[in-house]
Amino acid sequence: MFRAAFRRLLAIDDPPERTALAFSVGVFIAFSPLLGLHTILATLIAFLFRFNKIAIYLGTYVNNPFLTLVPIILASYAIGALLLGRPLRMPPEGIALLKNPHLLTGAYYARLFAHSWHIVQPFAIGATVLSVVCSAGTYPLTLWALRRHRQRKRS
Hints:
By secondary structure, the protein is mostly helical. The chain contains seven helices and no strands. It has helices spanning 2-10, 16-31, 38-49, 53-60, 69-84, 92-99, 106-154.
């Protein structure tokens, strides 16, 4: 799957700088804390900046719900908790809420919302850090691969 996607990225006929930028913006979106909005964001940004849609979608789908979503979420939470000086494990109140769900009561959801901030805040901070770091590293690597591929193709 990854190999086929990478071949598709190499076959794009846009300038390498533009393709690498679109791919790295897609990677930024993939690691962002805005779960569920990745495809919508990629589409909007592709249209606004006239990016190649294949390149930006390939970058966005680095966050694959079947393979990489859980590790990315866990890494995001761990990085955020580390930066905030919080323990890596979930607070006892959160565990208790998950162990004893009372899904039909309003009080349960009020408590869940109140305690979810202890999870959402570290996740959001960690995901933002991962977005910046991963997309910043992706651009030069992708640009190098695209240029090298085109040089080989010419010779």
